[in-house]
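Consider the tokenized backbone below.
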């Protein structure tokens, strides 16, 4: 998991949080000093993305080496992978957000690399279509998650963990996922 734009400099050694785009979320987070407002994140450069994929891979390898049965990639609840998926937090024009295919590209690259590193049977992924947590806004929810699930299907991951968002999106994601 990577917090992306909902991290805070207090927890990042003073560094500005990173995100797909420099869009400040509403709200804040708790620190030992009390509630702190979120800050405007720094948009990740395209050249930074391969190293970030390797961070996910390294974390997965360390988890398995430490005895974990596997890992769950967190592409939900407004964290970094969800920020790439969501149209309201990803306004990139470099092929990692230019359109629907671009918005799902980075999460699929992460899932592909982690599955290759530790085995797809040890990788799950969590999604939350349409869930507004951490100031996420999404358009094209049905099309986006259909494309994401179709893009993940060939990886044969251990599972897809879906936060039931029917109250948010009215989207029957489970039926669509089971059909693949």
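A designed sequence for it:
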């Amino acid at each position: 998991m990577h917090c992306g734009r909902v991290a805070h400099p207090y927890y990042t050694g003073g560094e500005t949080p990173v995100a797909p785009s420099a869009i400040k979320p509403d709200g804040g987070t708790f620190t030992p000093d009390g509630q702190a407002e979120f800050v405007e994140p720094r948009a990740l450069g395209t050249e930074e993305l391969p190293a970030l994929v390797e961070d996910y891979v390294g974390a997965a390898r360390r988890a398995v080496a430490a005895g974990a049965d596997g890992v769950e990639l967190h592409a939900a609840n407004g964290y970094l992978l969800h920020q790439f998926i969501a149209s309201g937090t990803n306004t990139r024009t470099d092929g990692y957000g230019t359109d629907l295919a671009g918005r799902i590209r980075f999460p699929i690259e992460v899932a592909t690399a982690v599955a290759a590193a530790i085995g797809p049977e040890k990788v799950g992924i969590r999604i939350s279509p349409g869930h507004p947590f951490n100031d996420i806004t999404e358009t094209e929810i049905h099309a986006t998650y259909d494309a994401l699930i179709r893009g993940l299907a060939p990886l044969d991951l251990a599972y897809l963990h879906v936060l039931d968002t029917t109250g948010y999106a009215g989207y029957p994601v489970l039926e669509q996922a089971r059909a693949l």
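Strands lie at 18-19, 28-31, 34-37, 42-43, 71-75, 123-127, 159-162.
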